[in-house]
Amino acid sequence: MRRRDFIKVIAGSATAWPFAARAQKPSNVRRVGVLMSTASDDSIGQAYSAAFAQGLQQLGWEIGSNIRIDYRWGSGDTERFRKYAAELVGLSPDVTLGTAASIVRALQDASRTIPIVFVTTIDPVGSGLVASLSHPGGNATGFIAFEFSLSAKLLELLKEIAPSVNRVAVLRDPTVPAGSGGFAAIQTAAPSFGVELTAIDVQSATAIERGITDFAHTPNGGLLVVGPGSSMSQHRDLVVTLAAKYRLPAVYHSFAFAGALLAYGSNAIDQYRRAAGYVDRILKGEKPANLPVQAPTKYELIVNLKTAKALGLTVPQSLIARADEVIE
After folding, report:
1. 99 and 228, same domain (yes or no)
2. Domain range spanning residue 309?
3. Residue among 327, 300, 6, 289 at smallest CA distance from 145
4. What is the pTM of this model?
5. What is the rounded distance in angstroms from the CA atom of residue 189 to the CA atom of residue 309?
6. CA angle (151 as vertex; 328, 117 as ends), nearest 5
7. Could you tell me the CA-to-CA distances from 50 to 150, 195, 306 in Å, in that order?
8. What angle do CA 231, 237, 240 make, to 5 degrees?
9. pLDDT tens column, 58-83
10. Residues 183, 45 share a domain
11. Where are the beta strands (DSSP E) in 246-291?
C-alpha cells in the first residue's frame, strides 16, 4: 500500500485510539503520555498517533487492557505544549512520547525523571535534549528527522526539476534548529547553484502569506520548505495553496504536504512505529540514557507529476527513476 493511501486508512481509524485509551484501567496497567504537535482533528497527526498505537499492539500491548495512552494535542502552540506537558507529567506516566524539540523541552522542564521518547526531532544534541547521539544520558532518547545537510539536497532537487529558477524563498521557523541550521546549509550551497535566497519566517499565517506574495511578484522563483516543526505543520495547507496560486515550484521536507511538487525526507510514520519499540523497551526496564538516538535509515523521494504538469514543468526521467513514489 502506498504511503498516502496508508495515511488515509490509518487516519480514518485513528479516532478509535484515544477513546480506547480513556477507558478505566486497573492499577497495574502501564501508562504512556503522548504530546502531539498537531491539532486533534489533523489527519496527519491522527495517522502518526495511530501508527504508534499499532506499533505497541504489534509488540504485545493491548490498549485498554495492559496499557493506557493519554493524548494531548498542542496545535502548534508552545504555551499549550508547556501546559499539556505539565498535565501529562501530573498523571505519573511510565514513559512519554514527544514530537519536536519544543515539546521534548517542555516535557523535560516538567520532569527530569520520567522517560521521554521523541520523534521527528532535529539536532537533539545542539538543542540540549541529550548529551550525545550514542549515549543520550538523562531521561530522553528517540529518533531524529534528518541532518542539516538534507536542506541543501532540497535545493539541488529544486534546480533539477526547475532549472530556470534563480530566486529561492526558504520557508523556515528561525526559532527551531531545523529552521536556522537548515537555512545555513542552503546558504552554503546556494552559490554553486546560482540562486539568490530570501528567508520567509513561518511563525504566523499572515507572515507566510505576505512573504510568499511579495516574493512571487518577480519571475523565476521557487520555494523550499525546510524542516518539520510545529509552525510548519500548522500552516502546511496554506503554503501549498499559495505555491499553487503563484505557480511556484516547491520542494518540501515531507510528504505530509499534499499537492507538493517534490518531497524529500524521512518517513515519519516509520518513526512513530519505531518509537513504539523504544517505549516497549523502556517499559520492560531499559533506561533512555542507554538507548542511542537513531537517525533515519532512508530518505524518500516523492514526485508529483500532476503538480508538475500544472506548473508547465517537464520532470526529468532520471528524477522519476530515482523516486520512491510517483503521483500521477
Report:
1. no
2. 149-265+300-327
3. 300
4. 0.85
5. 28
6. 95
7. 27, 41, 29
8. 110
9. 999 999 999 999 999 998 888 999 99
10. no
11. 250-252, 262-265
